[in-house]
Design a protein that fits this description.
Length: 322
């Protein structure tokens, strides 16, 4: 069996749960903010990954938590590894096993979705980045046919499914989001579709600006015409590093060293990654960060809090961790 790069595990201080951060990705999203997409980490088999995750949980929580989130990078790249990981998590008694994926591999490999569910997967979060094939290829480097297929296949299994789309002004705007919602409604009228605002601050490429609240609201209205369960995000674990309610997380590296990491630590990691990836000095990245519209984030949060019921809280508490 192959090994996967494991960047780290994350443990929550709020509620016992563990995130598995696997490295490498088959997409090249222009707006990606995940250093994990570029590979690296410690190469581990699924058994080794499970062993170290278990040791980390026992050391910190004194027991295994009920919830495991498998994320990256892209967790589906090595099917055998992922099946073994999910099977092992179920055998260890995890009640909720959640996969966060771009869907591409699941949609192009026969029975991948159903086998994952048979192995113990309880929930999947899939990014549908664009409905138009040309936009999808431009943004990710890959076709979206497999992604849409993954949505259908996962829906057929009957597990909990959340679809996420990032609003990117001029690229994936309200009309494009409505197309996605329309498609989703043909698969399952009750599908949950979360719309997240793009933020250029930590994006690999600053392809566009942050959308306004009005733009996001308009996209929500169009999506909600087709899907009663459309949601505007309070936080997004993929492309929107909104400051979460919790201030720190416990990061456990594969050598089992622990570090309490704050939002600032996360920012520093991303700044270092962007500086290297874009080959520009850290100071320039920092300047962009300082220009970032923190007020907007606060404003958005306030609007969201004020305007429930159309703004539903995410079904799972991702808190921006990945
Ligand atoms: S946003 Fe997600 S799918 Fe896209 S390149 Fe980054 S890690 Fe991969």
């Amino acid at each position: 069996m192959g090994k996967r790069g494991v960047q780290y595990f994350t443990l929550s201080e709020i509620e016992p749960r563990i995130w598995f951060m696997l490295t490498g990705c088959d997409f090249c999203c222009k707006g990606c903010f995940r250093p994990a997409r570029d590979g690296g980490g410690t190469l581990l088999s699924a058994e080794e990954t499970l062993e170290r995750a278990e040791q980390a949980c026992l050391k910190y929580y004194g027991q295994l938590p009920p919830k495991a989130m498998i994320t990256g990078g892209e967790p589906t790249l090595d099917r055998e590894y992922l099946m073994a990981l999910v099977t092992g998590l179920k055998a260890k008694g995890f009640k909720e096993i959640i996969l966060m994926s771009n869907g591409y591999e699941i949609g192009q490999q026969e029975n991948y979705a159903s086998e994952l569910v048979d192995a113990g997967l309880t929930e999947a979060h899939i990014d549908v980045k664009a409905f138009s094939e040309d936009i999808h290829i431009w943004y990710t480097g890959k076709s979206n046919k497999q992604v849409l297929n993954a949505v259908r296949m996962l829906n057929d299994t009957g597990i909990e499914l959340l679809i996420q789309t990032v609003y990117m002004p001029g690229i994936v705007d309200d009309k494009e989001i409505e197309r996605i919602a329309e498609f989703l409604s043909t698969v399952n009228k009750a599908m949950k579709h979360r719309i997240n605002p793009f933020t250029p601050t930590f994006a690999f490429e600053e392809v566009t600006r942050r959308p306004t609240i009005e733009e996001i609201e308009q996209a929500y209205k169009l999506a909600a015409k087709h899907l009663p369960n459309a949601i505007i995000s309070r936080s997004c674990y993929r492309e929107y590093p909104t400051p979460p309610a919790q201030e720190t997380w416990i990061t456990v590296y594969p050598d089992l060293t622990f570090k309490q990491r704050s939002i600032k630590d996360q920012e520093e990691d991303r700044i270092a990654w962007l500086s290297q990836a874009r080959a520009i000095p850290k100071e320039e990245i920092l300047q962009a960060l300082n220009r970032a519209d923190v007020g907007y984030v606060q404003e958005l949060t306030e609007v969201i809090m004020k305007k429930s019921p159309i703004y539903l809280a995410p079904s799972t508490n991702q808190k921006g961790v990945k």
